[in-house]
Each structure stands twice: as C-alpha cells, then as structure tokens.
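Researcher: I'm preparing a figure for a lab meeting and need a structural model of a single chain. I don't have an experimental structure, so a prediction will have to do for now. The sequence is pasted below. Please return the structure as tokens so I can convert it later.
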Amino acid sequence: MSEQSENPETLEWRIFLLGRQRGRGLMAIAVCAVTLWFVHGFGGSAWITGVAAAILIASLSSFLLPTRFRLDATHVLVRNPLYWRRRAWTEFRAYDHVGDRVSLRTLPHPSRLDHYRGMLIILDPARREEILAYIGQRISEDRHGSA
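Model: Understood. Here is the structure written out token by token.
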C-alpha cells in the first residue's frame, strides 16, 4: 500500500479505497450498475448510457481507482488515472486532521470554499505519524487548525 521514496524530503504513498472498504465498494458498484440499467432503459441509447457511465466513473474515481499522494519540499501532488492536482505548500494556510484524512486549507479559518480550494490527503495507516509530522513542518504550528 505504501512505498518508500528515495529522497528523505519526499513522502509518497498509494491508497486504494475500494480494496480497503470492500463492502462499500460492492455497494457503489451495484448502485452504478442499477443506475446505468435505468439510464439505458429510459434513454434507450448506448451513447447516453456510455456518457452516464463515464460521469459515474469520473465522480467516483477517488474511490474506485488507486490514488497516489506525494509530498515534497515545495509541492503536494494527488493523482489517479482520471485526476491530477499539484499545489505549492505556500498556498496552504492551515490544516485539519480527522481520522485518516487531512484537509489542507487555503484560508486560515474553516470556510465553505475549503472543498474547492483546499486538498484532501488520505493517510497511509502504516505511516500516519510520519506524514502528519511532515505536514506539520510544512504548515507552521501557528497556522494549524483543530486537531
């Protein structure tokens, strides 16, 4: 699930939520199949069904596909086969840590814009403390949100 980086200033790991949460994964796949069946039944077109399938897969890509996280001295990178996002550490003002997730925020206080402007980092359970310490170094403690 995780891989060690050659550079000690870089942390990199891979998370596959579908593999970790098989029950939820089977439910998501079943709901997608039923939705596509209804779309095909009511739309009657393979093209409409294909577009619906593409939209469903793209919207669930962070759950259905493996996601790689990379933290280096200057940037945060989150990517999977359908999604790629890279942001500089200097853009982040604070972070919140809840469970196995860290929300990097661009504003000093929680805001409704965090979902669009911030980044969500899913922690590798085996390296949780190491990753949290690394994030804490990059975002100074005076900018840290609630723990």
